[in-house]
Amino acid sequence: MEFKRARTNAQIEERRKEILIACAEIFDKGDIDDVHFKAIGEKTSFARSTIYKYYTTKEEILLDLLLIDVMAWIEDVIEFTEKYEVLTKEEFCRQFTKSYVKNERLLRLMSILYSVLEKNCSLEKLTEFKRNLMGFMAPLYQSIQKFFPTSSDEAIQTFISTTSSYILGLYPSTHISEKQKEAIKQSGFEYEIMDFEEMCYKGFLLLSSVL
């Protein structure tokens, strides 16, 4: 296969897109340990060495994949915001919960955002990621303001921050591995794995008290 250097912005973006599609396919079928440049290179139309021209680490690729998933999640928030004129706190928290449940890869990536992804990328990439992330938050603010018009900006920010922190810990605790399940069984410890959607809703409802 003849290698052709990407020269235009469109070609460069096409290369990035191809890398992200390959990364998504690998991560969806496995986990972060399965994502590496060799595996990604096997799924792209260009050599593995070319990936380094766009990304320094696999975590930087996963950060871009997370941004794509955030945008998909925001679209779901916009959808229910436009669908309903009025929602009670209970109804809003149920819809808000469903928007997360529909985007499981977002939850998987968010659960390792601070402990893994952000630790293994450059300051430049991390700054770019956070700047882009903040740019996506406007529709979320607008949704909360629509259904809770008397809430202050501080209250809305608190709700967004606390719900995000809540699901960061909730998701991995409700999606444990077979090895973890077996360890619990052998230890004799009685532990019932919680249902993520129901626990998410209940948590959001409690945290919505600030609105």
Q: Your description of this structure?
A:
The chain folds into two domains: 1-54, Arc Repressor Mutant, subunit A, CATH 1.10.10; 57-210, Tetracycline Repressor, domain 2 (Orthogonal Bundle), CATH 1.10.357.10. The longest helix is centred in the middle third of the chain and has 26 residues, at 58-83. Helix 1 (9-29) packs across helix 4 (58-83), helix 4 (58-83) runs parallel beside helix 9 (138-147) and helix 5 (89-101) crosses helix 12 (196-207). With 211 residues, the protein is mostly helical. It has helices spanning 9-29, 37-41, 48-51, 58-83, 89-101, 104-110, 113-117, 123-135, 138-147, 153-174, 178-187, 196-207. The chain starts with 8 loop residues before the first helix and ends with a helix. It comes from Anaeromicrobium sediminis. Residues 36-55 bind DNA. Residues 13-73 form the HTH tetR-type domain.
Keywords:
Arc Repressor Mutant, subunit A; 211 residues; mainly alpha; Tetracycline Repressor, domain 2; globular
Secondary structure blueprint with pairings:
Elements: H1 9-29, H2 37-41, H3 48-51, H4 58-83, H5 89-101, H6 104-110, H7 113-117, H8 123-135, H9 138-147, H10 153-174, H11 178-187, H12 196-207
Biggest β-sheet: count, sense, barrel? none
Could you report the average pLDDT, rounded to the nearest whole number? Answer: 92
Q: Can you tell me the CATH architecture of the largest domain?
A: Orthogonal Bundle
* Distance between the first and last residues' Cα: 58 Å
Number of domains: 2
Number of DSSP strand runs = 0
Radius of gyration: 20 Å
Unreliable segments of 5+ consecutive residues: none
**What class do helices, strands and sheet pairing give?**
mainly alpha
Q: Proportion of β residues?
A: under 5%
Order of helices and strands: HHHHHHHHHHHH
Broad shape: globular
Level-1 CATH class name of the largest domain = Mainly Alpha
InterPro entries: Homeodomain-like_sf, HTH_TetR, TetR_C_34
Domain HTH tetR-type: 13-73
DNA-binding region: 36-55
Keywords: DNA-binding
